[in-house]
Amino acid sequence: MENSDEINQQVLDKEVECSIEKALDIIGGKWSFLVMKELFDEKKRFGELKKALQGVSSKALTDTLRHLEKNEIIIRTVFPTVPVTVEYTLTEKGKDFHKILKEMKLWGAKWT
């Protein structure tokens, strides 16, 4: 029979797993991390992001931006120009991810 400390740890582990899974669902896939990395420095337009993220297709970038906007990680601002100008910036929720991304960068530098 398991003691209460083991049961409490299992519950905590399950809650952490759920939190990590939820966070990954909010952030999305590979391109999301790279888009966020680009937006930590400054707001950018679609073309600037596409140029910075070599290898991303227009469709993948559009899908990623829509996902991040839907999850309130970025803000899409449309300016009524001809042609229309659209800028993307991080929300506070998106900016809050900066520390995590920096740690991922350090881990990647150490282990790759």
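That was protein one. Protein two is written in the same sequence-then-structure order:
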Amino acid sequence: MRTGIKFEVSSSDRLELEEVVRNRNSPQKHVWRASIILLSADGFGTISIMLQTGKSKPCVWRWQERFMAEGVAGLLRDKTRPSRIPALASHVTERVVALTLTDAPGETTHWTADLMVTAMAGESQPISATAVRRIWKTHGLQPHRYRQFKLSNDPKFGDKLLDVVGLYVNPPAHAIVFSFDEKSQIQALDRTQPGLPLKKGRLGTMTHDYKRNGTTTLFAALNVLDGTVIGQNMQKHRHQEFIRFLNKINANVPADKAIHIILDNYAAHKHPKVRAWLDRHTRFTFHFTPTSCSWLNAVEGFFAILTKRRLKRGVFHSVVDLQAAINRFIVQHNQHSKPFTWTADPNKIIAAVKRGHQALDSIH
């Protein structure tokens, strides 16, 4: 061993090193490091160790010195080495973050990593696209993404919200609560070529183009208490069709039950003839959601399921075919329906909307 390097291998260390050498799953760098120490403990000289391990003299001395200082644990880990690329200066990181929070140059709508590299080209230290992405990730910046929103401007937003949520959470006794809406302009789309089915290693296929065979409008009312849906397909969605659907609800609900309907502010729902119909059917009560609040209407969840599971990948050769598929889906849904459960705190929603309006007012 080199002058200044002196150590003894205890019996426990020898057992551990021999286990590393015997284990066929040990990394090879651990194997030859352990071999250097075992050969040194057995009295072999540096030249002999070099010949048996195939390592250079500085390498043998390095790991003898490492074992002397840190023991077996020092052989099983590598020391951290400085990167060959110098770390970014703090002012470069701050500059990238500051630029990201401003408008992108030219006619682009948002920053990209390559665009940031170009913008930083004149700085004292060059920066790569990978470094830009790393800075963005560290600071929680995602300029390529955005969230959509819509704040209701209804002056009675709070009152209407509490009214609707009250029906969901604590419906009146001897009454049935329906969440109603229309899904208009559902297209009967037929593909120009037949698709291939799903198989191992291959996705199912569908042509990107289609043949449009007409449209239909689905009138649907979701029973909040048990999750069942009353649905009817119609060609239009005027007040006349709305009254026809109300008659269908009236015929499907026992005469001794009051009916509360949650619906949006579509003009057909407030038509004079609809109001006259309500005057003749006193057990019906309408509860209008605030404007721009379709998320508050429970039946929208059913429409999302219908679109995702039946309409989006469906192939329909005619409007009749489309309507029959929707009717079958509703029957299937009603066989396994579940009550609608509202969980959000309405007071937190009202507070969030107020904060949203304050933020918009501060900008404008």
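The first strand starts at residue 175 and ends at 191. Keep this in mind for the problem set.
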